[in-house]
Design the sequence.
């Protein structure tokens, strides 16, 4: 059985890359210098059936047109904004992504930033690191987070 040709646009987690390499023939775009990328792509165009871009990598119409065997773009990110979806529709190329993969992390960060802001943690850190406490040790009090429990319950339910 022929191995699936997969174009990786950026380095990825070593475990994932190792697992993919066991099942697929990987083409690592970043290993080709920018001046030689078109030659690299032309050389392997007929073998590449899938692209795995990161969320930061663009997959434009020219790249899609240059890969006649392309069947799927499996974005390793949450959005499609750097993928030419219209061109993919026109050519019948499937496009996937990883929706929701960052939802919990973004929620955690939002809670952390809210606490940091309400308790003025960053301001207090700068105050302490700058040595200002030696001159004026009267740092202003900040809002209590424990009084805002209902706010955080509501935020977590959104």
Sequence:
């Amino acid at each position: 059985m022929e191995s699936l040709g997969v174009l990786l646009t950026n380095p990825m987690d070593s475990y994932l890359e190792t697992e993919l390499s066991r099942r697929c023939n990987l083409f690592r775009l970043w290993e080709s210098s920018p001046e030689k990328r078109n030659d690299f792509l032309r050389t392997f165009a007929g073998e590449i059936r899938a692209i795995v871009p990161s969320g930061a990598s663009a997959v434009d119409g020219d790249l899609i047109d240059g890969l006649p065997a392309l069947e799927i773009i499996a974005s390793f990110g949450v959005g499609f904004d750097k993928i030419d979806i219209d061109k993919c529709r026109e050519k019948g190329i499937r496009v996937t992504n990883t929706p929701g993969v960052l939802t919990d992390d973004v929620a955690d960060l939002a809670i952390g930033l809210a606490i940091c802001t309400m308790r003025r943690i960053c301001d207090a850190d700068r105050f302490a690191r700058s040595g200002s406490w030696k001159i004026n040790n009267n740092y202003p009090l900040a809002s209590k987070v424990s009084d805002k429990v209902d706010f955080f319950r509501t935020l977590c339910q959104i």
